[in-house]
Known about the structure:
The protein is of the alpha+beta class. The chain has one domain (6-86). It has helices at 13-17, 23-43; strands at 6-9, 58-62, 66-73, 78-86. Strands 1-4-3-2 form a four-stranded mixed β-sheet. A hairpin with a 4-residue loop joins strand 3 (66-73) and strand 4 (78-86). The model has no long low-confidence stretch (mean pLDDT 91).
Amino acid sequence: MTDTWAWEYDPDPGFVIGGIDNLAFVAQVEQRADELVRAAAALYLDGAKYMGGSPRMQEETVDASGMFVYQVVPRHQRVYIRQVTFLGL
């Protein structure tokens, strides 16, 4: 894939965040995704050569307004955001 870690919506932004019109909430999700990328890069120093299983999907709460589901895939050097739920609180 690439030689640097990154995050992306999987399968695409329209599917994962389509319909969420609260841009501040989406910005919080993306900021947290940036933090998860830095943590994954520190944990999997040579992710492209990683031979173990990928970690399970995990949930991350974004204050009281929502949450998202993500998965770290070391061999791809990616954090995939799979689902975003906005509660509108």
